[in-house]
Amino acid sequence: MTMEYSRLKWACRRGMLELDVMLERYVNYRYRSATPEVQAKFDDLLSYPDQQLFDWLVKREPADSAVQNIIDDVINNAKIHC
């Protein structure tokens, strides 16, 4: 089940400005139009530690195969809405 929108926006507020920007932009521009499956993957992505998310989103480390598609979606969305 996907998170309530206001709770989701709050969950995107992290300890790193870069993460805040990328995750909040995804929620603002992509989340609502995504399929329920993609929304659920994004919700799950938010359970990872900040440093792990940062490393994946800046491609410092390869993402786990389970989250690679949603990581790519967040990165592509950030490029479009920068």
Descriptive overview:
This protein is mostly helical and 82 residues long. The chain has one domain (5-80): Orthogonal Bundle (DNA polymerase, domain 1). Helices cover 62% and strands 0% of the residues. The protein has 5 helices and no strands. It has helices at residues 5-11, 17-29, 36-45, 50-57, 68-80. Helix 2 crosses helix 5 (68-80). The model has no long low-confidence stretch (mean pLDDT 92).
List its salient traits.
5 helices, mainly alpha, 82 residues, single chain, globular, 0% strand
Strand content: under 5%
CATH class: Mainly Alpha
Our count of domains comes out at: 1
Instruction: Compute the number of helices.
Output: 5
Shape: globular
Rg over CA atoms: 11 Å
Estimate the helix proportion, in percent.
Answer: 55-70%
- Could you give a short account of the major beta sheet? none
Order of helices and strands: HHHHH
Low-confidence stretches: none
Which structural class do the helices and strands define? mainly alpha
Q: Quick one: CATH superfamily?
A: Flavinator of succinate dehydrogenase
CATH architecture verdict: Orthogonal Bundle
Number of strands: 0
